[in-house]
Specification:
The protein has 270 residues and is α/β, with parallel strands linked by helices. It is built from 9 helices and 10 strands.
């Protein structure tokens, strides 16, 4: 479903701030796979997601989604393939529109139809049924403004919007990072539920090793613009947090990360 070959991306080329964010990245994600991406700060994981989404056009390499070459297409041109949920609960929605109107916009995603006058009773009933699955008591609040919701409620609705029309690919950009632990756990459960119910192909960037271990079929570990670990199957099922830290320790030995950075990683990723 996703195939990237030899992706390269450099920022601030020719200056003292030049950064090689992606260094010849190649990766294949099969249909219905759920892949999580972890890595140190500046490892390139968010850049990889942005390049696949089309927010950034790569300096080199190719990107295929469901066999279609989208390398030179902008994000809006990839919208028929991709849905995305951002880290900020207030991104990806219209705060001045009602919950129902936001869901309506998501419902007509990729369709050649102007939706303003199409919020009929049948659709409202459908949206009420769908939003009840979030278990957040929002089914009777469809006329409330999206901006009136809490961060966790809004993120849950955003996740629902992303799957109303089943996408080829769902990109999750640290979508639980801004939430408190209880709400993050609830949104993660919804993520797992929707991924299974819709047989989605998912790529999720996360700072939480616990989340990476708890969900998905494969873990990609990035460091310094490269993929340094690609763990799936039984190997992934048997992984522990200590195993992942041991892999970071090996990176330290190979690339001379400081013990202070390893300590920071332990504090940050648990």
């Amino acid at each position: 479903m996703i195939k990237v070959e030899n992706l390269t991306q450099t920022f601030n080329t020719g200056t003292i701030d030049q950064v090689e964010a992606l260094k010849s990245i190649s990766l294949e994600i099969k249909e219905h796979e759920f892949v999580t991406v972890i890595g140190t700060n500046g490892s390139g994981k968010s850049t990889l997601l942005n390049v696949i989404a089309g927010n950034i056009l790569p300096d080199g390499g190719t990107i295929l989604i469901d066999g279609n070459d989208v390398t030179k297409k902008m994000d809006y041109q990839r919208a028929k393939y991709i849905s995305r949920v951002f880290q900020n609960p207030y991104s990806g929605t219209a705060p001045g529109m009602t919950i129902a109107e936001n869901l309506l916009m998501a419902w007509f995603r990729g369709k050649h139809r102007y939706p303003v006058s199409s919020l009929n009773r049948a659709l409202k009933n459908k949206f009420r049924e769908q939003i009840a699955t979030l278990d957040m008591q929002l089914e009777d609040r469809l006329e409330n403004l999206m901006g009136s919701l809490s961060g966790g409620q809004r993120q849950a609705v955003t996740l629902l919007m992303a799957v109303l029309q089943t996408p080829k690919v769902l990109l999750l950009d640290e979508h639980t990072a801004a939430l408190d632990p209880k709400t993050a756990a609830q949104v993660l459960l919804l993520t797992k539920k929707f991924a299974g119910a819709h047989n989605l192909t998912v790529l999720m960037v996360t700072h939480s090793m616990q989340h990476a271990l708890a969900i998905g079929t494969r873990i990609i570990m990035m460091h310094n613009g490269r993929i340094v670990e690609n763990i799936g199957g039984d190997d992934k099922k048997q992984l522990t947090i200590e195993d992942l830290f041991a892999k970071f320790e090996n990176i330290r030995k190979l690339e001379k990360l400081t013990p202070e950075l390893i300590k920071t990683l332990r504090n940050q990723y648990i």
